[in-house]
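Tokens for Major facilitator superfamily (MFS) profile domain-containing protein. Go.
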Amino acid sequence: MEYKDELKKKEAGDSDALESVLAHVGEMGRYQRFLFVAMLPFGVFFAFVYFGQMFITATPQRHWCRVPELQHLDMGMRRNLTVPRLEGGWSQCAMYNANWSLVLETMTPPDPSTETVRCRDGWEFELGDIPYRTVVSERGWVCEYSGFAPLAQTIFFVGSLTGGVFFGWIADRYGRVPALVGTNLIACVGGLGTVYTTGLWDFIFCRFLVGMSFDNCFMMMYILVLEYVGPKHRTWVANMSIALYFGGGCLMLPWLAYFIADWRHFLWVTSLPMALTVFAPLVIPESARWLASRGKVNQAVKILRRFEKINGTKIPQDVLDDFIVSSSQTRRTGESIVDVFKSVPLRNTMIFMVVIFMACAVIFDGLVRMSEGLGLDFFVTFTLTSATEIPSVTLVAIVLDRWGRRKLTIVPICMAGVLAIVAAFVSKGIPQVVLAIAARFSVNMSYNAVVQWSTELLPTGARASGSSLIHVSGYVSTMLSPFLVYSERVWKPLPLLIMGVTALTVSSFGFLLPETMGRPMPQTIDEGERFVRSHAICGQAVDDEDDIKHEKQKALIT
């Protein structure tokens, strides 16, 4: 028993040493509160990066073929003379193959039996539902070119995968702050570059650049701040930053687009402010955990002294000495995401997290796409959808440290699954929409619980790159949601049934992961392995006897 106690002490290592330093410097002091406020611009930038493309590539629902000979007539007359009538509306992609001089003379539309052809001179758009010209309406990305905008969105997500891996590696190799600055700068360059594009491929390239910043433009700051906040306040900081800053950015975005009413000016307004992140290193400290994990103990101590000064606290010298000694002895490592995948327990943890996150992402995005049945305009619908973010994440912030990460992942995603299955068999309209929004509210809770859970499970050396990989895998999975929604053409209830069954199946993976509530974050691969091995399905930590024997043998040898 005595040896077990000693081993548990050793297992905590630098995690306990740094937690001890934070306890004395202040778990949520003046400096931590400043860092929480400093997350504001990055949360808003995240919303701009994620959803901005929706507002520059929005497609007006009413459009028809343009006929140059009739441009002097008013819009209603032009449409009546040129566009074949279809059941329930007008043709959007075909026009009469008529003698327009004759049509102008008689001012009567061609006979309905007249041959129709594809639009020859582009399209006209009625700027009603979308009250400004977008990339789609300006460049005619409709009808046979309607796949261009979805292609650009897909390439955006390809960029997010590339950027997630690259900037995650940068964060673990060179620090959180350089990665934070780099992601926001590349989003700024890509966004402003989009303004000057003239065709498809230069547009796609610029959206790829913006995609590289996706997730990491906020998550680097998110990880850094969580590493400085004490365990008691971590849940509040993690979730309220998403609810207030990202949620607020989502609510702001549609009305910025609406009132600016010009897609180029909109990109200037949402991209240029990201250039201000070059000044971030002046006010945002590097992660002391990361510095300690790279053997840069003196720099870590210097930052902790700054916390002392700003918070008006004092770290006892013996506590600081413990941190310095333990860091100097054990932390000169180059651990990275590669080492996580070499470790069987941590590799399994990563795989389970990726599966859960991907499921949450595709279900949430699928439900967003299916909620267009609300019958409201684009801007109001987006606002209502975004409004679910704040209450759901606030609820997670309130109960996460009472119920734990595992329960807040498993229970809401199960609820979302049940609600989706019920929604599949109720009548379309208000009943189905209400159930779908409730399911989205529930899955959003799981989504945000998993974000914090994954951050707390990964060791410091691989926390940024591992978190990036998990988050990016989730967002890449959203590329499947359009096909999921399209399956409605095979059988009406099929999309909601797939989402429901997926949610219920994936919830079981949560039982295979350890609870992190109230426990220090692991610093090294070894600590991460011991953390995972101590997990029992019932949720209680257990001692790994083999681990203890192995450590005892090592101790006897040395």
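The chain has a mean pLDDT of 80.
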